[in-house]
Amino acid sequence: MKKLNNAWKVLMAITMLISPIIATDIVANDEVNVSVEMPAQVVAQWNVVDIDINGQVPLGSNPWMDTAGKVKAIFTHEDGSEIPVNAFYSDNGTWTLRFSPNKLGTWSYSVSYDWADDYIFKDERYYEDQTIPVDTSLEYKEEYGKIFNNVSGSVTCIENTNELMHGGVIRDSENLDHFMYEDGTPHYLVGYEIDWLGMMDQGINGIEKAKAMIDLLLEMGYNEVLMNAFGWDTTWCNGHSSGPNNNHKGFDFGPTGDFPWKTFDNFTFTDATYKYYNKNKIDYSQMNESYWAKFDEVIQYMTEKGVTAHIFWKVYNKEVMWANNANRGASYYDSNPYVDFEDTMYARYFRDRYGAYNIIFDMGKESYNLSWNADDSAPDRYSNGIPAGEGNAFYLDAMTREFHDGNGHDRIITVHDYDTYMSYLKSKKGSPENYSVNGNYTDMVQMLSDQTHNSSGKGPNYSNTLNNKNNYPLMPYYQSETNYQHSNYVPHYNTYGAKNDEKTPEAAIRDYCEITVAGGYWAHYYTLHAWDVIKYDEKPDNHEYMTNLVNFINNNVGVATWQQMNAQQLNATGDARAIIGLKEQNGSAKVASSIPGKNYLIYVGYGLDNVGSPRPDYLNSVTVNFTQVTDPLTGYWYNVLTDETIELPDVITSNGEVTFAYPAFTQAPNKQGSGDSAFLYFSVAK
């Protein structure tokens, strides 16, 4: 093909979020690769620095497709530790290396264009009788090499003064089924679903709406947001709806105001045209910088505020047409498209653009919508809007590997809902000890994401949490969706329907207490925040219930202590058991955690019957079997609804069973039954 001129100018600009832009002009040519040493730069620990490399795109090349995952840098700390980072193409001849240092001191980096024929799925069954795409990027290897090879520089990491930033969320190195931050701080992760958080300000200046919503959730005690990388609209609030009595007029942000891919002929979608013109209007081979730049602003603000972004890379129920070659003739509802490089490019682009932030990568919201072939057989053919290639577990496995292989900052990877993917891994790979050198599945996913409503058949949250922690002991268990709290309006209006026993904040806090005392993590849904309708100027009724639980674990029990407790379902031989008189079958104290002789945590929830009414029986007392007591223990009752503490008068000084009468708490607003959602807690006397 035609070569470029013998010389061109390569501009390298170091752009840092905490300092001015510094630019240096470098001249390279066809004959000699010029070594480029950039001046040392300074960035605070846990912050993100952008290193922009500008160059002329080779004639005929698509830089999104031809460089995704191939422009590589190694950041090496002065102690020898390394963080590999891939650049993403951000348009207009600019590639960006996004880096976040996890250690103080000097980091040196070197860049190269590392071409490999790695786009293709190495399984012809994936394409059946269709044409297998060919990676043509080798044609531009030499030209791209002259832009990137032999470029180097350094970044000096200084101390971070932002007390809200602790680095990314990772698994606790000593308690692998729990979380901590990179700086070693134990972490009680508490999530909140706001799918459209990164999209509610698309198409307008600023991110004021997103900032207001983030500040609001921080007031309520949440520290993680479940959000979509992209969603178009919801079927339950289709179009820019207003709700009964205009309750949410101006707060429905679906359809989204901008688009993550470029469109042919600058085509602008409306809700009416989106599904019908995608086959010749969306260019899935080029990303739209304006969309992702806005998304960057939201993620950066969350990072500065200490909020973890749990991002669904794909979602299967938000009216999205994913790449999968849809623009080459297959409509959204076609049952026979094939997956090609465009899908892989999107995975790499997203991974490399956001991996430096405090982020959790989730491979797909409600991935159980895919069909799974445990024997890795040829693709099922779907006709409900899900691309056929994605109807196989090996597709998700391949995409998960894309995130894993380029995950230089070691961010957590998970799959929502976990059941089908973990079942595939078991059937495909065998038992955990036979799967990897790590002796478990955590080389692929590091967090078990669940979705269990009361009607799902998985059982109560306390037993479901315990079962999953027993089955997957080397990763945290996260119940990301178990309850929908209805709107504040009377009569109640839900943007998405909820079952009778899933509407009240009392029902929600019951579930979260069960999950917490069993050693799991949870997320909250409010129907006017969770999806495309976001009333960012209002708090859910009785939100203080959840705030009280968060404060109780963080400040009273202590996160490190809670994480060390061994949870167990209450029974006659356990460290704690409930005495419910003659109605034990309706008893509410179902689970407890303990560090024998030191800490005992018993949840005494009241619960509802199957139509959301309080049960007629009540808890009389709780008996605790104390063992290994060497130091005096003090205890108290804590009511999550009323934020009420009642201290016990007696100190525990010896082993044996002790019965504690249930106290008379103050009646909480809208409380479902007497003494709902209370804890009994003991710790070594101070």
Keywords:
11 helices; Immunoglobulin-like; TIM Barrel; about 20% helix; 3 domains; alpha/beta; about 675 residues; disordered N terminus
Mind explaining what this structure looks like?
With 686 residues, the protein is α/β, with parallel strands linked by helices. The protein folds into three domains: 7-158, Immunoglobulin-like; 185-250 and 285-559, Glycosidases (TIM Barrel, Alpha-Beta Barrel); 566-684, Immunoglobulin-like. 18% of the residues lie in helices and 25% in strands. It has eleven helices and 33 strands. The strands form seven sheets. The chain has an eight-stranded parallel barrel with strand order 15-16-19-20-21-22-23-24, surrounded by five helices. Strands 3, 4, 6, 7, 10 and 11 form a six-stranded mixed β-sheet that branches. Strands 25-27-28-33-30-31 form a six-stranded antiparallel β-sheet. The chain starts with 6 loop residues before the first strand and ends with a strand. Residues 1-31, 121-127, 325-339, 371-391, 432-439, 571-589 and 607-617 have low confidence and may be disordered.
In terms of topology, how is this protein built?
Blueprint: E1 7-16, E2 22-29, E3 36-37, E4 41-44, E5 49-54, H1 63-67, E6 71-77, E7 82-86, E8 88-91, E9 94-99, E10 105-113, H2 141-148, E11 151-158, E12 169-171, E13 179-181, E14 186-187, E15 190-193, H3 208-219, E16 224-228, E17 261-263, E18 282-287, H4 289-304, E19 308-312, H5 341-354, E20 359-362, H6 393-405, E21 412-415, H7 418-429, E22 447-451, H8 461-471, E23 477-481, H9 505-517, E24 521-524, H10 544-557, H11 559-564, E25 566-569, E26 576-579, E27 591-595, E28 599-604, E29 621-626, E30 633-639, E31 644-647, E32 656-661, E33 678-684
